[in-house]
Amino acid sequence: MRNNKIKSTPLTMDEINKFNQSEYLSIRKIKTPKNAKFDGIEIPQTIEKTILLKRIVKKYKRLGMIPNIFSFTPFIKEEQLYASIMTEGRISNELHNQVKSLLRLMRYLNILVKYEYQINLEKNIAYILVDSDTLVSLYNDKELRKTRDIISIPEFNRRMIMEWENASRILNKIGEAQIQARLRNLKGTPTIFLEHQNHPYALMFGSNYSQQAYFVENHYGIPVFIPYYPEQVNEQPLRGIKFQDLNDENVQNWFGGFQFDHWNENREKRLAEKERKQKHPFLSKFGF
After folding, report:
1. Strand partners of residue 203
2. What does residue 250 show for φ and ψ, rounded to 5 degrees?
3. Cα separation of 206 and 202, whole Å?
4. Nearest alpha-carbon partner for 186 in 222, 224, 232, 153
5. 147, 215, 227, 259: least surrounded by Cβ within 10 Å?
6. Could you list the pLDDT tens digit for every one of the 288 residues in the chain?
């Protein structure tokens, strides 16, 4: 089995329109398996999920890359999963079957759900993480514990496909640039967090980002950039990036000479002013 190049270019507006015109008839959620085996053993659905996965990962080291990749993103294309464990673009039949069994098992245990959909008549399969607790318990990682509420997509629905498809593609491009990043779910809004030149940034996808962007910027001090299609908006979002500009291989160019230190200084001044008015509401009535 050979590795096809993982897509890292955003969907075009034409692809979006064609997909929307299909009225989502080309999307289907694959039913949860009624049974699952691993190593030829029938697995009961009442089994302790974390203990089982720990045993599998310990016995088959390369299979450990499958749950690990879900710690970076809750939305993964099937081709990307297989590519993550390939050696020089190849995978043995034995390992391929083991990965297939593990993915079926994780669906059977309600850790993942599987969707099949088409873009330009091309069949796509995506796995969505719906159970973050198992992942957090598996790795016992401090960062995962702190962000357990935004790791999975427990209420995923098929109308979210395009936003997560685009976010996943951009995550691939960032990875190609050797920049570490995480894709997280902020109340349904796909958000990529990355660090570039020692500064944190966030990319938010979709249309319902306003509250989430405000929270991330003011509480965490991370500037948020909004990828958008000019044809879909009346005015450019604050720090908006056209999707077509995300085709640029140089990630630095996406931020257009953004001055992080200046932005952060202004942010701290705004927060200080807000705090002052909250402490002295009487003064704010008179415009102070």
Report:
1. 192, 225
2. -90, 105
3. 13
4. 153
5. 259
6. 334 467 889 998 888 887 777 655 578 899 999 999 999 999 999 999 999 999 999 999 999 999 999 999 999 999 989 988 888 788 999 999 999 999 999 999 999 999 999 887 788 999 999 999 999 999 988 888 999 999 999 998 888 999 999 999 999 999 988 999 999 999 999 999 999 888 999 999 988 899 999 999 988 999 999 999 998 888 888 899 999 999 988 888 898 789 999 999 998 888 887 777 777 666 655 555
